[in-house]
Amino acid sequence: MKIIICSSKEELGRQSAEEGATILRQVLAEQGQASIIVATGASQFDTLAALVAQPDIDWTRVTGFHLDEYLGLPMTHPASFRGYLKERFVDQVPIKDFHYVNGEGLDGSGDVPAECERLSKLIRAQPIDVAFVGIGENGHLAFNDPPADFETEEPYLIVELDEDCRRQQLGEGWFDSLDAVPREAISMSIRQIMKSRHIICSVPDERKAQAVRDVVEGPVTNQVPASILQEHSNARLYLDPPSASLLENRS
Ligand SMILES: N[C@@H]1[C@@H](O)[C@H](O)[C@@H](COP(=O)(O)O)O[C@@H]1O
């Protein structure tokens, strides 16, 4: 895992998006098509804003996959990740296909296992070139809270959200109360994320400093799910000075 400490949050957004765009242009030139994974949350604001502004990416040949979503939240809810991605990404570029995770089940029917199955089938058929992800204050990767399942081969899972994770969502201002934060979600699995050829992980802000230290300098353990990124040969972790502040080795 390569660590890049940027001079500011905005610079982190610019550099991570430029790296992603460079890879995408190259993959499109070589393969004629590309597939990406996109994450949500406050940590992705600058990366996504810079990504949609990148020149010379033929989005009509790119397929996107949604990383994770709360169970039962309608797209109109301010915290809906589908709503977030539609506004900040899908509506901004002429993307070929974007596969949203419907937390209300297959076609909104409430059948969540069927929705996981639908998405799993789609992503199994489509090797991922670049995954844009973040990490949580509790070290989670997507919605795989500790202790994360490092073994399952299922691409999409139903997961329980722990209280730290739910408190983070409340702290970011997406919900009015802790009770309003859903207790379950659909998440892409750790193994599926790790299958991506390139991983671009954007992690700004002081509130992530301890998680960053654990992910970078601690052991690989499912108690710190994103520590698995140490084992990926093409993972890049973009930090700003506050999120890097607890690292012992900052060179
Ligand atoms: N489940 C989301 C992920 O999609 C995101 O990549 C990560 C970082 O989150 P945030 O940007 O809110 O800090 O965890 C969130 O909770």
Write the layout of secondary structure elements.
Blueprint: E1 2-5, H1 9-31, E2 34-38, H2 45-52, E3 62-66, E4 68-70, H3 81-88, E5 97-99, H4 112-124, E6 130-133, E7 156-160, H5 163-171, E8 184-188, H6 190-194, E9 198-203, H7 209-217, E10 235-239
Parallel strand pairs: 1-10, 2-3, 2-6, 3-5, 6-9, 9-10
Antiparallel strand pairs: 4-8, 7-8
Bound molecules: 2-amino-2-deoxy-6-O-phosphono-alpha-D-glucopyranose.
In words, what does this structure look like?
This protein is of the alpha/beta class. Helix 7 links the parallel strand 9 and strand 10. The protein starts with a strand and ends in a 12-residue tail after the last strand. It has a single domain (2-239), classed as Rossmann fold. It has 7 helices and 10 strands. Helix 1 packs across helix 2. The protein has helices at residues 9-31, 45-52, 81-88, 112-124, 163-171, 190-194, 209-217, and strands at residues 2-5, 34-38, 62-66, 68-70, 97-99, 130-133, 156-160, 184-188, 198-203, 235-239. The strands form 2 sheets. The chain has a 7-stranded parallel sheet, sandwiched between helices. A 3-stranded antiparallel sheet has the order 4-8-7. 2-amino-2-deoxy-6-O-phosphono-alpha-D-glucopyranose (GLP) binds at residues 39-44, 67-68, 133-136, 140, 142-143, 172. Residues 8-233 form the Glucosamine/galactosamine-6-phosphate isomerase domain. One of its GO terms (molecular function) is identical protein binding. One of its GO terms (biological process) is glucosamine catabolic process.
